[in-house]
Prior knowledge:
Blueprint: H1 2-17, H2 19-24, H3 30-61, H4 65-76, H5 81-93, H6 97-110, H7 115-127, H8 131-144, H9 150-162, H10 166-179, H11 184-196, H12 200-213, H13 218-231, H14 233-239, H15 247-261, H16 264-277, H17 282-295, H18 315-327, H19 340-350
Amino acid sequence: MKKVLASTVAVVGLTGCSTSVSRAKVATPPAVVAARNTQVQSAMDRQVRDASEVRNAVDAGEGDYEARQLRNQLAARPQNLEIRLRLGARYDALGLPELAQEHYRLAAERFPGESAAQLNLARSLHRAGRSAEAASGLEGYLSAYPEAPAEAHSWAGILRDSLNHHLTAERHHRAALDRSPDASYLHNNLGQNLALQERGEDAVREFRAALDRDPANRVARNNLAAELGVTDPQAALSLLADKNASEATAHSNLAALLIERGSFKDARRELSLALGYDPAHPAALANLKMVSDLDGRPVGVITPRAASGTVGENPWHKVGREMARVFKTSETRRPEQPAAREKKAETRKATQLNGSE
């Protein structure tokens, strides 16, 4: 406040003594003033909104015994990082992310060099759909503390990948591997980044490196199978081999990974093989419907006209009956859908895998 007053007085004094200073003074354009006022009002509105959300969250969490106990412990030991992080995690578990993030921020401010506080805050913001804010905050921490553990660099890469900033993400993933070159999951993360950049050979090399370090890394195995499913289906099937799974299940599982990858044409090939082994295979039928919904093409089967059980009936007729029975689908052409890469995020959770799970 003192600096503002001093500046104002200086302007008044100068304008009173010299007309040249008065003429040099340029008024702020109305549009700039309006934009500045809008920004200030927006910031004030957000502060009020955030404060209201925190108050509501506090009210909602009052009835939780564990949260109440942690709050009492924190009141007695306000500088205890572990208790504050546990309280934040409890609020996250209760579905109160605003309050959780408030505790993570306080932890990060009081312990600026602690990666746990930064990572918890970044993950919570990411889950809340605020990935850009999470990435910016975590990168600020990494700039100040470049010696941060590999996990922090890896998460910066994950966040940038989620924002489709893949080149920036790649630098973070490689920085993570520089700090922990034998971590299987870090090679897998880099492989996923390279796959998103459509650098298949490089991605395969990283997925293999992940499996060399941890043969039980199922995520890396599935990712490698998905990449090989386009160029070497037999190698992909061998990766997914399961003595308890049928041939139909193996092909359907590979199709599921290809759908997730956005390789719909190759997925249809595997589903054709799966349904050739078992026309009523539930997961294959579900995946066939899914790929049809995603690529906007018909399911690729003929609605049977022959009666059930006809001798010499085309196996695809049986598939058609199963599709009609399970999904009640018709062969009307669907509208064209967005490109495959834009659909990956939506299909990742929905794709059906069975047998080898």
